């Protein structure tokens, strides 16, 4: 067989990939994934790949270890942003941070509640503004009327608070071992009433799950991002991630609003090919493995 015939045969086999033929030959995407050592483990592989990209990964087997790491990272900070996923699961972490005189910027829903509570004369935010406040840009443009001054002012105040924060602390929904990537999912809109239910009235927007962690802005705006990652949420590669997201989300209510992939600190060489960190996101990424 000539070299040309061999290449054409490989192309034909790749184009013929289909679920029905996968028992004969793995799909092209799966064939492209590197082999892993049986003793390395997904956590070890994730650590190696993340550190190649300039991130830092440490073991945090206990809450005490997490607190020790935070104390070292936050000793010169006056303001820290903490996602609701962290404050809900580890409330004592927030207590210790406040105990050191450090102000905490909470997730957007809690920030909105506290902002309204400090203004006794302010009426409750209408349901349609609640929906628009947490909707993505496409939903806002499709709505019958744009977000008015109350919600816009609240959002601007929240962003300013995040820009003043030295560190953002979140969890991650998943991580990819092959590329050392953290994956954060932004789920559907939430309401500001404090109830577990979902706003039923609005400007014709699709509003569903209110159980998602609000961590996207907190992971991107502060110059340092610390992520608490459950080892059991590390998958081998992008193929496994998409299959898991399909199973856990698409089949149970629909896709997330956005998927944020974080592979190490932000970096760019757009200006005169000079590598610069922190332009489009945090300059440092620290991952604490637990579980």
Task: Please tag this protein with its features.
alpha/beta, 6-stranded parallel β-sheet, 12 helices, single chain, 17% strand, 12 strands, 4-stranded mixed β-sheet, Rossmann fold
Poorly predicted regions = 18-22, 24-39, 134-147, 189-210
Specify the overall morphology.
Answer: globular
Tell me the CATH superfamily: NagB/RpiA/CoA transferase-like
CATH topology: Rossmann fold
* CA-atom Rg in angstroms: 22 Å
What is the end-to-end distance?
53 Å
* Biggest sheet features: 6 strands, parallel
Q: Report strand order across the widest sheet.
A: 1-12-7-4-2-3
Strand residue content: 15-25%
Helix and strand element order? HHHEHEHHEHHHHEEEHEEHEEEE
The portion of residues assigned to helices is 25-40%
Question: What's the domain count?
Answer: 1
Number of strands: 12
Architecture (CATH level 2) name:
3-Layer(aba) Sandwich
Question: Class by helix and strand content?
Answer: alpha/beta
What is the top-level CATH class?
Alpha Beta
- Taking all residues together, what is the mean pLDDT? 76
Q: Helix tally? A: 12
Describe, in plain words, how this protein is organized in 3D.
The chain is an alpha/beta fold and 291 residues long. The chain has one domain: 3-Layer(aba) Sandwich (Rossmann fold). Helix content is 38%, strand content 17%. The chain has twelve helices and twelve strands. The strands form three sheets. It has a six-stranded parallel beta sheet with strand order 1-12-7-4-2-3, with helices on both faces. The protein has a four-stranded mixed beta sheet with strand order 8-5-6-9. Strands 10-11 form a two-stranded antiparallel ribbon. Strand 10 (267-268) and strand 11 form a beta hairpin. Helix 8 (127-134) packs parallel to helix 10 (149-163). The protein is globular. It starts with a helix and ends with a strand.
